[in-house]
Amino acid sequence: MDKILLRKSTSPFDVKIALASSKSESNRALIINALAKDSSENLLNLSTARDTQTMIRLLKSTDQTADVIDAGTTMRFLTAYFTATNQNKIMTGTPRMCERPIGILVDALRTLGAEIEYLAKEGYPPLHIKGFAEQKSSEVTIRGDVSSQYISALLMIAPTLPQGLTINLTCDLGSIPYIKMTLEQMKAFDVNYDANWEAKTIKVLPSVYRSTTYKVESDWSGASYWYSIVALSEFENTQVELLGLKENSLQGDSDIVNIMSHLGVKSTFTADGVLLTKIPAETTLNWDFTNCPDLAQTVAVTCAAKGIEATFTGIESLKIKETDRVLALQNELKKFGGDLVEVEKNTTYKVKSSQPLSIVNYPLSIHTYDDHRMAMAFAPLAMMIDVTIEEPNVVVKSYPSFWTDLQKIISFDNF
Ligand SMILES: O=C(O)C1=C[C@@H](OP(=O)(O)O)[C@@H](O)[C@H](O)C1
Ligand SMILES: C=C(OP(=O)(O)O)C(=O)O
């Protein structure tokens, strides 16, 4: 299936969606559980996302080469895990994965005493983890403005190191909720930490993970596409209940509740999840995505299509994700009269909107750049117009049942 044509929604809907579970929580639970030297049977509701299935496969595999495909957390978390457990492994992935930086994590692991070599370009996968004979330092200093995944990776192995670990963070921190998610999941497995966010230090003493039953929450990043669907639906009585989401979530992307309250969606928490209903939208939005970078594409498409004037900050990290998401958004928003215009170098962007949509070429066809979030962020346009999504299978990275779920509200053709 290399294209899918989504037919414009023609009626209101009232559906319940059993969302995919969070790949971020799942991948942390799997690493921590492996460090607790337990099987994964005590982990409930693990994600079916390819990123998580890849993590499960590679944790079990005895092959020397670990191919993470395009999973960033799997690459970064396993690099630290294989180091801490002194395994001789070659870490690799897709060509794009080999363009996503890992030098900051490798430098930190080398400071701790690991022997790691780059097999192609300095600072990028593929790399060869050769061993970790003895801990040379109990402290590392790393910058926190490139990817929080390096910090999460180091934190999870920290209690298993003979001297424990103190992490000193420099620069402006990004994706902090993901670091807090890591720390909370470590705590769930009985490991404590001492974090001083003012001083930007996190200390973990040598300690033992205690295996426990852990249930993964549904995925708030995946929920964001349903918020966009409700925001863009032309029918006032449309509503969607997303199952398995909690009001007090470990996931920073639960901020979508707040963002969408400005864009026309009300959230009401229920016994089973959250009910989304339509409310009037505001005309402008200013949002800093530093703590929720994965929501930026969803919100950009929603604002562009709804005619909401939006200013985005904190989206620098989008350039080093599955694709350069800033460029991908610019290219695709332009196809219906929108854009993402850089107004201050690398810091501030304005979403150009188009109301009514001004389609440059019919039929509207969205290129997805091997990025699941491009496919899912543009799919809600089907509330307003027929739209083709190219390479729709990309969604398997985080939300394999996305198209099946979408079929509950609209019809579409595969080709
Ligand atoms: O730790 C995690 O689970 C993630 C952290 C974020 O990455 P960065 O820290 O690189 O922003 C996020 O974009 C990614 O989808 C998942
Ligand atoms: C950036 C993402 O994932 P990762 O960095 O883990 O590949 C994502 O899922 O949007």
TrEMBL record:
Pathway: Metabolic intermediate biosynthesis; chorismate biosynthesis; chorismate from D-erythrose 4-phosphate and phosphoenolpyruvate: step 6/7
Residues in the signal sequence: none
Organism: Emticicia aquatilis
PROSITE patterns: EPSP_SYNTHASE_2
GO process annotations (BP): amino acid biosynthetic process; aromatic amino acid family biosynthetic process; chorismate biosynthetic process
Protein name: 3-phosphoshikimate 1-carboxyvinyltransferase
Pfam families per the UniProt record, alphabetical: EPSP_synthase
Catalytic function, reaction form: 3-phosphoshikimate + phosphoenolpyruvate = 5-O-(1-carboxyvinyl)-3-phosphoshikimate + phosphate
EC numbers on record: 2.5.1.19
